[in-house]
Amino acid sequence: MKRLNKNGIGVGLLSLSCLLVCAARLHSQQSGTAAIQATTPERVGTEPWWPTKSTVALEAFAGSSSCSGCHAEAVAGRLITPMQRAAEHASEARFLKVKPLINFSSPPFSYSLTANAAGIEYSVFAKGHRLSRNLDWVMGAGELGRTFLYQMDGHWFQSRISAYADPAALDLTTGLSRNSSADLIAALGERLSPEDARRCFSCHTVHSTTVTGFNPLHAEPGIGCEACHGPARKHVSAMREPAMHSAKDAQESDTDIFDPAKLSPSDSIDFCGSCHRTFADVVLSAGQSTGTAVVRFQPYRLEESRCWRETLDARMTCVACHNPHKPLNRDATSYDKNCLQCHSATSGEHAQHAGNLCPKAKSQCVACHMPKVFIASMHGTFTDHFIRIVRPDEGFPQ
After folding, report:
1. What is the per-residue pLDDT for 84?
2. Which range, 62-76, 157-171, 203-217, has the best average confidence (pLDDT)?
């Protein structure tokens, strides 16, 4: 009998799936232009630095504030991005300040979030009984919603109810089911496995897990500088040395910090995909490669695009359109210049599709070729990064 993984899938079958996926990916790429992509756990295990890497000493990190002396503009911009607001201590949460009490009912249970002196009290009620916990962490920038983490009996739990932005109300946490027969403990939240808790904090905070293990008490809330650039203490110390005056010295010190801008196009997408999900992560994860819910995994969807598969071009990476140090630009017209780098009216040196312009419109390319998809369970709309010609009445492409 095949050994089963935690999703109940035979390891032999999973290995076959891996071979098929890798073969398909290799077939779709231009010969010799890129290696077969690896899953995020494989990347974390083999790369000197990769987001969510946990084999670094806490003392190696310097904190995002240490970067502002030399990179004031980038740090200031980062502070107002959704990534920086990816997590916060519940005791410092601001979203309940305006509306200090929110209620929700999912019979036979009723829920409430209440602002108090300690931060946020999360409660469930049923048949005259009540169970409450003060929340420890708020996860999510609030663009779509926020989910909550709390501890009980030495374990981490994810709240069964989340706060959504549109409409501004509580509802069932995405991915969790309603269970009218649950006891109050199960109705309040879902217990996370140690690995799930670690993974959650790894993508919403910095250095929650280090070489000594998982400890959220050490975590820096949000996606700070070192989440992408790696531990910076050595770099910061080098730059503060009196002898560090020449451009050559500064350039040599760059070896003490990780620069994602130097990654190949394929590696760059995988780098962002370490939290936003890569092609390999989604396809090799049971139950994640079908349905509209996958639209939220932008790197995976981008890698499905013909534009990407046939070019592996740096103009097609996540950071080609999105500056991680600045808030997301929601003006559809602003992305036209990126599309027209390849889809040009003239045969420029770097044009991939010279003269092959859209016959329907001359601006707002993404409005048609990267359609919006509404996911009811998430109370939000996502831009599908699978760039394509969207045909009338076509189903959602997997």
Report:
1. 92
2. 203-217
Residue 287 sits in the same domain as residue 368: yes
- Residues 65-85 have pLDDT tens digits of 999 999 999 999 888 899 999
Other Cβ atoms closer than 10 A to 15: 11
Residue 389 lies in a domain: no
What pLDDT digit, counting tens, does each position of 314-334 carry? 999 999 999 999 999 999 999
Residue 395 lies in a domain: no
CB atoms within 10 A of CB 50: 21
Question: Do residues 386 and 304 make contact, with C-beta atoms less than 8 angstroms apart?
Answer: yes
57-61: list long-range contacts, CB under 8 Å, 24+ apart. 57/210, 57/211, 57/212, 57/231, 58/207, 58/210, 58/211, 58/212, 58/218, 59/233, 60/231, 60/233, 60/234, 61/206, 61/207, 61/220, 61/226, 61/231, 61/232, 61/233
Q: Can you read off the two tokens belonging to residue 390?
A: 């969207």
- Domain of residue 160, residue span: 87-191
> 124 and 111 in contact (C-beta within 8 Å)?
yes
Per the domain annotation, does 390 fall within a domain?
no
Alpha-carbon span 100 to 193, nearest angstrom: 31
* Residue at which a domain ends, from 165, 191, 217: 191
In a domain, 49, yes or no: no
Q: Please tell me whether residue 97 adopts helix, strand or coil conformation.
A: coil
**How many domains would you assign to the chain?**
3
| CA 177 – CA 182 distance, rounded (Å) | 11
Q: Do 316 and 249 share a domain, yes or no?
A: no
Cα 241 to Cα 103: distance, rounded to the nearest angstrom: 55
Looking at 49-131, list the stretches that DSSP marks H as alpha helix, in order from N- to C-terminal side: 72-78
How far is the C-alpha of 279 from the C-alpha of 302, rounded, in Å? Answer: 9
- Same domain, yes or no, for 349 and 274? yes
Q: Do residues 267 and 43 lie in contact, with contact meaning Cβ atoms separated by under 8 Å?
A: no
